[in-house]
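Annotated sample (chain length 584).
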Amino acid sequence: MNMRRALPNASFFAFTGTPLDKRDRNTYRHFSPPGERYLDAYSIRKAEDDNEIVPVKYASRLAQLQVVGKSLDQLFEDLFNDKTDEEKALLKLKKKYATIETLSKADRRVERIAHDMVEHFNTKIRPNGFKAQIVASDRIRAIKYKEILDRLIGPERSEVVITVNNKDSKEWKEKYRRTREEEKAIKEAFNDPNNPLEFLIVCDKLLTGFDAPIEQVMYLDQRLKEHTLLQAIARTNRTYPRKEFGLVVDYVGVGRELAEALAIFEKEDLEGIFGVDDIKKELANLDFWHKKTLSFIDKIDLARGRPEDILQKCMEILKPEDVRADFDVAFRSMARSMDILMPDPVVDPYLKDFKFLGFIREGAKNLYRDERLSLEDCSKKVEDLIHAHIKETGIESILEPISITAPNFREKLEIKGGSKAKASHVEYAIRQTINEKIATDPAFYGSLKERLEEIIEEDKKDRKDEARLLLNLMELGREEKKREAYANSLGLEGAKEFSLFGLLLPFRKFIFSDSEEDHVAFTKRVIESIKERRVIDWTEKEDIQREMRKEVKRLLRGKGFDEYDIERLTLEILNLARIHFKDY
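Output written by the structure step:
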């Protein structure tokens, strides 16, 4: 206030992630001009759209423990049914004054919640390699959770981080007081995917300012309010590989009170934050994307025909790149919903179709060599489910990609189905080889690519003979093996020297007077001129490469190449030299 009095005409700026709009605390009143709210705002929804954070989902567990109205009596009986009648009478008298906080701290309740957390974590979170934070109502409950987890899963998988005061017991000081370095080590261990520490148990610490992208779930057993709630759940929204969402699991009824607790914020500030009906919405999302993904293959009778024939029909539908891209968007959306909901029985009606869709997606990835379809970007839980299904079907070999240079190429090709399916596998095996190796021999693989496109184009015009298409593609595939033998017959040292020979092939008639012998001799002379000038790490030394370019140009000019071709060929020859003759 002193600053405002001293500078009555100054503008004041506030940087905040959780602006308040309450009578006693009001960010807008103190910092915003009349009629304005923000100079600039970056909302939760915008951050999600920019992939700066992941959306946070909400799930309620053990609803019977969220004490309201009539359920108080039932909870009382559940918690104290082992007491005598006299003890119960006394407790009933005390119950009149009981609050939700006092009852919710009962040891049996904590025990039940701890078991539920472990079961939830082991089935939904741990399979994907993520970790968890438990927010207890107070320090006593935090320590209780630690003791129970030690018994259930072992002491190395959880740590409790709480404030310990000088007035606390000696036992607490010895067990739970942490130095700054010790607390830092715990945080680092938690963020390490290879460290067994999976649960951080807190009540007042690490709820704000603690960055742990590997944390996916927060088990909430404390009534956080207002901006503290927003800041706490943000522990789960950091991006991390394969992390599609963060999750808040509610054991105290925060979801039910969410609207009231967050009423201090503007509606647009909260757009994108979780809601109490997230699971219901997610099931609706799953149903929508299930239908959308199936629609790509709805014209195929999936109940008739051999698996390899059904797979081939699906592959034909997914051959266009834009169709595969649209299919992938739909499948990933379905997979995201499955990941959120599994292993809840609500997904059971969708499970069979989901496995099959994952099966054909894997087939399309392998056939078309389309790494966008890799399951590595899906959650580990989804990936394991699809791969287990593929293994169970016993037709893994049908999905495996094949290489035209593999010694068992023909054997692997034979199990791919009919001529049409085999032709597709050969075509894309050739395409893969071309894409992988064209930089090592542009002339040979460029020519191979042109001939492949000619064969495919001819087949589009006349689709009557699938066997002929397969035969043509097989013959083209053999060119890869013939190249090495041809290079050796010319006296060239394999594919490396043959790649430079191929660069000069278009000039055979005009420069080498159609003499193969002269062509080979000049190729070897160029290669020797490069090898003679090599030194250690020559590809990193511009002065050495300059000398090489100078000598190559001299040789080309002396042979009669024109200046335009000399510049282009020198560049291409040095590019190949960096690949094939890098080692000194």
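Annotation: The longest helix spans residues 466-489.
Annotation: The first strand starts at residue 56 and ends at 60.
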